[in-house]
Amino acid sequence: xxxxxxxxxxxxxxxxxxxxxxxxxxxxxxxxxxxxxxxxxxxxxxxxxxxxxxxxxxxxxxxxxxxxxxxxxxxxxx
Length: 78
Prior knowledge:
This protein is α+β, with helices and mostly antiparallel strands. 38% of the residues lie in helices and 27% in strands. It is built from 2 helices and 3 strands. It has helices at 11-28, 38-49; strands at 2-5, 55-62, 65-73. The model has no long low-confidence stretch (mean pLDDT 93).
């Protein structure tokens, strides 16, 4: 297992992880029920943000398959 910076090639696996994460939480609390377009929105968000130098997606990779992730970003406040 290794942690590495995510790439656009990881996005389908990250969307699958996110969907499972959201569905798990929805089972615990219906407030977390995802919208039908939620996965598409997450995919678009990752695709856009991976181009931003102040944004990072870090993937836990096991044999070339994403099994976890973390998202971090830098934001300046006035």
